[in-house]
Each structure stands twice: as C-alpha cells, then as structure tokens.
Amino acid sequence: MLKKYTFHVNGMHCNSCVILTESELKEVSGVSYVKASLKNLSVEVAGDFNDKEPGNVAQELSEVLKPHGYTLSLEKQNHSAGWSDFRIAIPIALAFIAFFIILQKLGIVNLINASKVSYGTAFIIGLIASVSTCMAIVGGLVLSMSANFAKEDDKIRPQVLFHVGRLASFFILGGAIGVLGSAFQLGATGTFVLSLIVAIVLLILGINLLDIFPWIKKLQPTIPNFIGKHAHSLKNINHTLTPLLVGVATFFLPCGFTQSMQIYTLSTGNFITGALIMFTFALGTLPVLLLLSFSSLSIHKKTQSEIFFKTAGLVIIFFGIFNLINALVGAGVIPPIFNF
C-alpha cells in the first residue's frame, strides 16, 4: 500500500545535499517518490513500506543516508550553534590566515592581490571546498562510481578518467567563461559588480559553515536543480567513458564554492586567466577526492567535526572580506587599507 511521509533531515546544508538526499533515497527498493526541501530541511517520501511504523521507515532510510552525513527524524531537532567550538576554531583560523599572509609577504605565494582573486586564493578555497559539506555530492559521486566499477574488478582506470575529466573540464570551461566575459566587454563597473558578488557569495558560504544562523542556507546561490540532478545521474551509466563524463559534469554541480569562482572567472575576460583560476581551484579539491577515490574512507568520517567547519568558515569569511575590500579599493570607493 502506497504511503507518504515527511521527515526532517539532519545535516542538510546546501542544494548539493538536496540532490544527494533525493538521489540516494530514490534508489531504495519500494520508494516511488522523493522530494527534499532545503528551506524546510525536510524530505517527502512516498512508497510501499509494508505497513511499517513511520519511525521504523525513518530509521531504515537513515541507514542509507548516514554514509553521507544525514539522518532522518519524525520531529525537528533543535538547532545548536555550538558557540563553545569557537574557543578552538578562532585561534586555528587566525593562525592559518597569519601563516599564509606571512608566506605572501615573503613572496613565496601570491595569496592576496589588491585587484583580483589570485591563484593561491583559488587553490585554498578549493581545499576548503573539498572538505566541506558542499562537496558531499562530489564525494558521493566518487564513492558510488567506485563501487559500481569495483564490482567488475576495474578500480584504477575509472578513478584516473574521473580526475582527468574533472581537471580538463575546469580548465576548458573556465576558459570558456573567461571568453564569455570578454564578449560582454565588462568595464570597470561590471568588474566591480562581479567582484562584489564573489565577495558576498564567499561571505554567505563562510557564515553557512559556521552553522550559527540556519536561515543563511536559504541565501546560497545555485544553478537550477535539474542540471545537478542530471549530472549526478550519470554515475548510474556503466560505460567505459562514464567516469570521464562524470568528471566533466562536476563543473555543473550546485556547489557554492565552484559558483563563486565561476562568477569571478567571468570578470577576467580572458581564456587563459579564466582557465587557470578554475584549474587551480580544481587542483585544490584534488587531494581529498584522490583520498576518496583510492580508499574506503567516507568524506564525512573525516570532516564531521564542528570545530573544523567553523574554522573553515572563518577562513572563507576572511577571503570574502578581503575580496569585498579589494573590490571597493579597486573602484576607488575607499582608500587602500592593508599594505599587503
């Protein structure tokens, strides 16, 4: 008998979580309909559950989602800001920021540039994105694809094709976005507006990682969900070139970090600069994705510490504030504030 339930989803942070939740639950035997909502942090599920109690259904479906860091419950759980975590997160974040500023002042890395997002910034944002919940969907793709091909005793080739496809697509499509920006002939005003958008997006992402204002999740920009859903569904196609296509498709997944870099790339108006920005960002995500590819570790088993997410959020907010200040300085709105 077909029944419909609405469960609260614990652990949902962004539209990537929505897509991943829906995709995983749709593959459960007996489930005929799934619709997740980031706004309400809930999921509607319909199907034949053999007259099981709602609590039992929630528990069984939670087992499917647990590897990705989500659980279902009948009642909405009270949100805990975890203010005590900041006692550790703030010193770590300050040390991280100070370390890279010192490297920049020594000329070892060009992390901060007065007029643009540097390759160092893109790489660091990529590192943080790779271990944030916004990259959960990419980690889920990697793990699911690995499992599918492992059944055929084909473990190495699919992983190599996936990462080659991912890096190549970020380079080529990043360059294409740069060229698109030049076609619009962005002037000083257009560049300022896009830089401002990047700064705001980074601030929203950073505040979201702090997990102290639940409503901020609703403000995260994203591409249409149907694009992300189609990209995610590619993992179920068992073909020789599927890993390559899945790697290419990750460029279009609804990750706020990726989109902030894509927005900035549009302002470069140059193929090479745009390609290198996106390629460097993808390189930043590579270490963690490689770890996922060639091990049985779950991304959430390594990143569930609230202290870590708050530290990452503070670092992202730092980059957001700097980009905001740089945009205002570049537009002549305010004088230079920092001498590095």
Give a short synopsis of this structure.
GO terms for molecular function: metal ion binding. With 340 residues, this protein is α+β, with helices and mostly antiparallel strands.
The overall number of domains is: 2
- Compute the average pLDDT: 77
End-to-end Cα distance: 66 Å
Give the spatial strand order of the biggest sheet.
Answer: 2-3-1-4
Residue runs with pLDDT of under 50 for 5 or more positions: 111-115, 296-304
Main sheet record: 4 strands, antiparallel
Structural class: alpha+beta
Write down the secondary-structure element order: EHEEHEHHHHHHHHHHH
Work out the helix count: 13
Radius of gyration: 21 Å
Tell me what portion of residues adopts beta-strand conformation.
Answer: 5-15%
Give me the count of strands. 4
Helix content: 55-70%
Q: What best-fitting shape do the alpha-carbon axes yield?
A: globular
